[in-house]
Every structure is written in structure tokens, then in C-alpha cells.
TrEMBL record:
Hydrolyzes UDP-glucose to glucose 1-phosphate and UMP and ADP-ribose to ribose 5-phosphate and AMP. The physiological substrate is probably UDP-glucose. Poor activity on other substrates such as ADP-glucose, CDP-glucose, GDP-glucose and GDP-mannose. One of its GO terms (biological process) is ribose phosphate metabolic process. It is found in: Cytoplasm. Its cofactor is Mg(2+). The keyword Magnesium applies. It comes from Trichogramma brassicae. This is Uridine diphosphate glucose pyrophosphatase NUDT14.
Length: 220
């Protein structure tokens, strides 16, 4: 990706307008809100939650550049969370960049494939790397305990520059608008300690796992 194209993707990600909230459509392809009723220890209880698909995430280390391959994208939920509660949406006061996160490459489990195969597809679509299936190392699966049902399976993969076959950036036909970034080990260590940290918990877990378990890779 050229510097001009990179600048273009950053501008496009931050070009957010006409942001509003409305009721969830009954035919939403992502979430289905339900109330669970159950009896525990002889007492009737209920819990409101949303049914959703599982996902995969990939900790990606480029051995050629000695950097971690990550993605940035606008997340509406994060943007809302970064504004004061009850505040009106005002992009002058609260710019769209507040909702732009740094994340591990990843995606939804919505294909009739193994989790590793889906991780392989997502790495190519989002970051532009074609890695062999055998290169994907299973780390763990985490689960939400609150309002959503989806589990996140995390993999680790090592790539090199020869595996980079396309620009990445996600599938535009699916509405994806993703910037691929590369961070050195020192940059990542600084980021996870900084006040500018704007990433999901699984990102922190994956990075800490990498720093603890792959010293023989990034320190050699």
C-alpha cells in the first residue's frame, strides 16, 4: 500500500457522519436479543442477552519486519462508550477517531470451515497474507460472561514478506474498512501501557501471550 493510499484509508475510516441510534431490527444478521428464564437453587431468575456468532482472532508476527501485524477500524460501540453518557453526538467535540481501535486481525465464524481455516481466510482478507494452514497455532478460546453469547478463538501465526500477496483491508462488499498497521515490539509494549490504549480485552490477552511465550521468536 502506497503512502497516498494509506492516507486515503485513514481519511475514509474517520469520515463518519449522520450517526444515530435506533431500535434493533428483528431480522438483524448479527444479534438476536432474548430473555433467558431459569430456576437456580429453587429461585426463578432471568437474564437478558444477545445471541451472536462466534469469532476468531489472530496474533500475527512478521518475521521479515520483526513486527506485529494489526488492524485499525471504526467501532460504533467504542465511539459511544468514549462519549459522556447521555451526550449528543457531535463530531466537532467527539471526533470519529475516538471510536477507532487497534485490534488483532479477526472475523466471524460464519462459514462451513474449521476455525483455523476461517482464521486463514481472515488473515488474507484483512491483512493480505497467505499463510499455510499448518502455520496457525491454537492459543485458547475465551467466552463472554455478560450480554452476548459469542466465543472468541485466538490463534498465533508467523508470516514473512513473501506471504504478502495483496493489500488486505477487508471485504468492501461486506462494509469492511480496515487499515493494516505494523508495530514493533517496543511500540506495542508502549501502547498497552499508554493512556491512548483503545483496544478490546482479547487484544491485550493475545499480545501478553505473545510477549510471554514467543520471546525466542522476537528476541532472536
Amino acid at each position: 500500500m502506497t503512502d497516498a493510499n494509506k492516507k486515503n484509508i485513514v481519511e475514509r475510516i474517520n469520515d463518519v457522519t449522520k450517526f444515530s441510534l435506533g431500535p434493533l431490527p428483528a431480522n438483524s444478521g448479527w444479534l438476536k436479543p432474548v430473555r433467558v428464564n431459569y430456576v437456580q437453587d429453587g429461585k426463578s431468575k432471568n437474564w437478558d442477552l444477545a445471541l451472536c456468532d462466534d469469532g476468531v482472532m489472530i496474533v500475527t508476527f512478521n518475521r521479515s519486519s520483526r513486527k506485529l501485524v494489526l488492524v485499525k477500524q471504526f467501532r460504533p460501540a467504542v465511539y459511544l462508550n468514549r462519549m459522556p453518557k447521555g451526550a449528543e453526538v457531535d463530531f466537532e467535540k467527539y471526533p470519529a477517531k475516538l471510536g477507532v481501535t487497534i485490534e488483532l486481525c479477526g472475523g466471524t465464524v460464519d462459514k462451513n470451515k474449521t476455525l483455523a481455516e476461517i482464521a486463514q481466510d481472515e488473515l488474507k482478507e484483512e491483512c493480505g497474507y497467505e499463510a499455510p494452514l499448518s502455520a496457525f497455532e491454537y492459543i485458547t478460546t475465551t467466552r463472554s460472561i455478560g450480554a452476548i453469547t459469542g466465543a472468541q478463538t485466538i490463534f498465533y501465526v508467523e508470516v514473512n514478506n513473501d506471504m504478502h500477496t495483496q493489500a488486505g483491508g477487508g471485504l468492501e462488499e461486506e462494509g469492511e474498512l480496515i487499515e493494516v498497521i505494523n508495530m514493533s515490539i517496543s511500540e506495542v509494549k508502549e501502547y498497552i501501557k499508554s493512556e491512548d490504549f483503545n483496544s478490546p480485552l482479547n487484544f491485550l490477552f493475545g499480545i501478553e501471550w505473545f510477549l510471554h511465550n514467543k520471546k525466542n521468536v522476537y528476541e532472536c
